[in-house]
Write a structure and sequence with these properties.
Blueprint (H helix, E strand, L loop, with lengths): L3 H6 L1 H8 L15 E5 L2 E4 L4 E4 L2 H4 L8 H11 L12 H13 L7 E5 L2 H22 L16 E5 L8 H5 L17 E4 L19 H12 L6 E6 L15 H12 L2 E6 L22 E4 L10 E5 L1 H6 L15 H16 L2 H22 L3 E7 L2 E9 L4 E2 L11 H13 L1 E2 L6 E4 L7 H19 L4
Parallel strand pairs: 3-14, 5-6, 5-7, 7-8, 8-9
Antiparallel strand pairs: 1-2, 2-3, 4-10, 9-10, 11-12, 12-13, 12-15
Helix pairs in contact: 4-11, 5-11, 8-9, 12-14, 13-14
Length: 468
């Protein structure tokens, strides 16, 4: 072992040698050494100041090192860090009560706490299937004369551009091309629907004259997959995240709610990316007036700790009063993480950050849309609150994308733009998206927004000139 200073000086080399980086080949892994973080900025050991335009994997809606959250975590360290859920702690109890209060729907909800978005998705899928099992088998609601080789509704309807996580169950309900890496070893019982993607309507229609066929098609899918005797739930991202920041038309989610009610299916809303103020409302579902049966939270919930949640509506939670909830994880209900999460929610409410995200999001959107008039390769600019993307195309008329679905990790102009922004403008965005990712912390200022958009404009100029 060398001296502490030697280890500090070589942290990039050490991490690059021994850490397995997610979603990456390892041979060229060279992480940038960080000295400290503050607000929206990452300060490196060589004196650079880099704006984090992906909010640390979309986790730090409050920015780095918010003093109120850090103080709540310090205070909790002196009390209880973790006990099993056979015991109660103040922050865990207050957090789940708060989530029951602020999530859409009435009282009587219950929350299960996990450590990752994928872990929460796994619990949501299991919870939906357990619910249908108890509803159909234990209560003997199957009345069809058809034989049932599988005794209860188990199928999950998802969508092709969704991403729900990297564990087996979560990846199995992900339409994202990363699922291909796991095939054929995915969980059975998942069927994918087309997306509510108006810029690239899978039916070739133009909104609003389309009659929301993307939702109507799901109604047909449910019928063709066996209806309420075979299908358990529909899982969606209210606003598609990783695969393009795609807000649906306003009629889509209410129509999907109606379809789920018609078939007596559960609607699962995965708000891992969109929850807790990201879209200018506490939850993206609220933009559409829809109450899901199961709501998934992650990323920003834990603020600076791994903490996610599955909020079960009273209808679903009631099922488990006398029936086993057959799922669990070590560290579920972690008191230290819950203290940080509770403080984070209080900051959102007390400091008016959700309304600020809405107002600054409108300003950010207006500035980004100006780029569409300036650059032919900008095909679409879309988003809600502080959740935006710029979709790049080779040709506006044909809308041929710069990065095809199967090119998520290929070097394209998107990769070059990300590298240029980091190298020349000290702006960090992910390189593996299908466009330019614009997802700043909710505390971003107008001055910082101008800095970011000016940097993106310069990157597009260099790309247009063939210099990147």
């Amino acid at each position: 072992m060398g001296k502490t200073s030697d280890r500090t000086d070589n942290i990039s080399e050490i991490q690059g040698r021994y850490l397995m980086q997610s979603w990456s080949t390892q041979g060229q892994y060279a992480p940038i050494p960080v000295e400290r973080t503050e607000g929206c900025w990452i300060h490196t050991t060589d004196g650079r100041k880099i704006f984090d335009l992906r909010s640390a994997h979309e986790c730090i809606n409050l920015g780095f090192n918010h003093p109120k959250v850090l103080q709540a975590m310090r205070d909790q360290l002196e009390k209880v860090i973790y006990v099993t859920d056979d015991f109660a702690t103040e922050p865990t109890a207050q957090l789940v009560r708060t989530l029951a209060d602020i999530t859409p729907g009435g009282p009587g909800k219950r929350t299960w706490l996990a450590q990752s978005g994928a872990g929460a998705v796994e619990a949501a899928i299991k919870g939906a299937r357990f619910y249908k099992y108890n509803q159909v088998v234990k209560n003997r609601k199957i009345n069809s004369s058809e034989p049932h080789l599988y005794p209860y509704p188990y199928k999950i309807i998802s969508r092709y551009r969704s991403y729900h996580g990297a564990t087996t169950g979560a990846m199995s309900v992900s339409g994202d091309p990363r699922r291909w890496l796991q095939e054929p070893f995915v969980a059975p019982g998942v069927v994918f629907a087309p997306d509510a993607y108006c810029y690239r309507c899978p039916f070739g229609h133009t909104y609003p004259s389309c009659d929301i066929d993307c939702a109507g098609y799901i109604d047909q899918m449910i019928a063709l997959e066996g209806g309420s005797e075979k299908v358990a739930a529909v899982i969606i991202e209210p606003v598609v995240g990783s695969n393009g920041v795609i807000p649906p038309p306003p009629e889509y989610l209410p129509r999907l709610r109606e379809i789920c009610d018609k078939w007596d299916l559960l609607l699962i809303a995965d708000e891992t990316m969109t929850g807790l103020g990201r879209t200018g409302r506490m939850f993206a579902s609220e933009h559409y007036g829809v109450v899901p049966d199961i709501l998934i939270l992650g990323k920003a919930l834990g603020v600076y700790c791994p903490l996610t949640a599955v909020v079960f509506s009273q209808k679903v939670a009631q099922c488990f009063e006398d029936n086993l909830f057959g799922h669990g994880q070590s560290y579920s209900g972690h008191a230290f993480a819950s203290a940080g999460a509770l403080a984070g929610i209080n900051v959102l409410l007390e400091e008016g950050l959700i309304d600020l995200a809405r107002k600054n999001g409108e300003y950010l959107g207006s500035r980004l849309k100006m780029l569409a008039a300036e650059f032919e390769m900008v095909g679409d600019v879309r988003g809600l609150g502080l959740f935006w993307t710029i979709e790049l195309v080779k040709d506006r008329k044909s809308r041929q994308p710069i990065r095809q679905v199967g090119e998520k990790y290929a070097n394209t102009i998107v990769t070059n733009i990300a590298e240029y922004l980091l190298r020349e403008k000290n702006i960090y965005i992910p390189r593996d998206k299908f466009g330019i990712w614009v997802v700043p912390p909710l505390i971003v200022t107008r001055e910082e927004i101008d800095f970011l958009v000016d940097g993106i404009e310069d990157a597009l100029k260099f790309v247009t000139a063939g210099q990147v």
